[in-house]
Every structure is written in structure tokens, then in C-alpha cells.
Amino acid sequence: MVLGIVVPKWAMTALTTEMDNWRLAFEQERAAHQVTREQLIAAQASVDTANEQGRAMVQLLEKLGHRPQTTGSA
Predict the structure, then answer these.
(1) Over the Cα atoms of the chain, what is R_g?
(2) Contact, 58 vs 68, CB < 8 A?
């Protein structure tokens, strides 16, 4: 105890419990971030699909003789 090498059991138990709590919090945070990343990937895929569908619709309408509308005033 004099050199700080030996610690009481209650102190070691408290430190171990605190370490386990921090590890659990870290793992939960990492899992939450993984879910967020997966949702962002799925959302990006939906956006890409919608953009491609929009481009295809514009091309189809142009081939049918419709002009694209312009917005704003010039």
C-alpha cells in the first residue's frame, strides 16, 4: 500500500465497474452511429433513384415535345 501497488478490493471493484460502464457506453454509441450510417446510405440511395427517375421523366417529356418549365424571373 505504501508504494501504491496494492489497492483495496473495494477500490478495485469500483474502478472495474466504472471501466465496464464506460466500455458499455462506448459500444452503445458506436452501434448507434452504425445505425445512423446505414440510414444515411439508404437515404442517399433513395435520393439517387429519385434523381434518376426525374431525369428520365424530363427526357421522356422532351421527346414528346414538351418544353421544360423555367422558374424565376429574368
Answers:
(1) 30
(2) yes
Distance CA(11)–CA(13), nearest Å, equals 5
The CA distance from 71 to 60, in Å, is 20
Q: Tens-digit pLDDT profile for the chain (74 aa)? A: 566 678 889 999 999 999 999 999 999 999 999 999 999 999 999 999 999 999 999 899 889 988 767 676 54
Q: What is the 3-state secondary structure (H, E, C) of 1-42?
A: CCCCCCCCHHHHHHHHHHHHHHHHHHHHHHHHHHHHHHHHHH
**The residue to which cell 458506436 is assigned:** 30
